[in-house]
Amino acid sequence: MSKLALEGENSILEFPDHEEDLTLVFNSSFPIDTIFIGRTYPFPMYRINRRERAGRHLFEYVLEGRGEIVIDGKKQLLSAGDTFFLSKGSEQSYLSDPSDPLSKIWVSVRSEYIDKMLETYGVTTGVYRANVAKKFRAIIDIAGIDSSPGDKFFVVADTIHEIITELSRSKLASEQNIISVIKNELVSSVYSRITLDALAAKLFISKSQLIRIFKRAVGVTPYQYLLGEKLSVARELLSSTQMSVKTVSDLLCFTDEHYFSYLFKQKTGKSPREYRRDC
Questions:
Q1: Number of domains in the chain
Q2: pLDDT tens across 216-240, in order?
């Protein structure tokens, strides 16, 4: 067990032997109170339970290995190239795969300035796939340079800012990919049943997140989008085949013929039979 005395704080933190090369950068006149920088080396039994401690944000970049993290009760896998951000005041647990333990760089920071930056860029607790490897390695390198703490502090703070912008860019790209996946899944489910819970689990997000992301981008909820797709197919079947209204309803997995007819008329202004007659 190694110990690190924190300048500017009346405390000593203890770190297990697999957490090494820890560095503190401190400057009381700067808008960031304290920055801790460290490196986690592979350790099969590595496990962390983070429970609202110290009011610090934590940025971690996985260099090698595999593991998992639990956020809001949902498990996500970790692998080389992943960055996970844990906001202050939140609870998470994460651990290494014993057969391929994690090696990672981490940065812990406390600052109202960072709070506002994270809010502005929309960076929230989660796992990101962003182009930040060089930035995390640069922070480790800068921390090890024999120069004044003040010089290090400004460079590290600037690099953290760059990491946040990259995470924001990654989140936007990820959300666009999520929307594409949701659309494909919904279109593929026109002739079957699908639940948002199952779709959310497939994307490693909550049901509420799925609905919020989709509606913000598309303008309607996933249910409304799927209903539109089903009714579009229904119009095509009614106009080009001799299928009965009940058969069309069953084929598109509506609850029953009457509910299908109600939704169809609400959308088109005509009942299914009226629509077929006028085609």
A1: 2
A2: 999 999 999 999 999 999 999 999 9
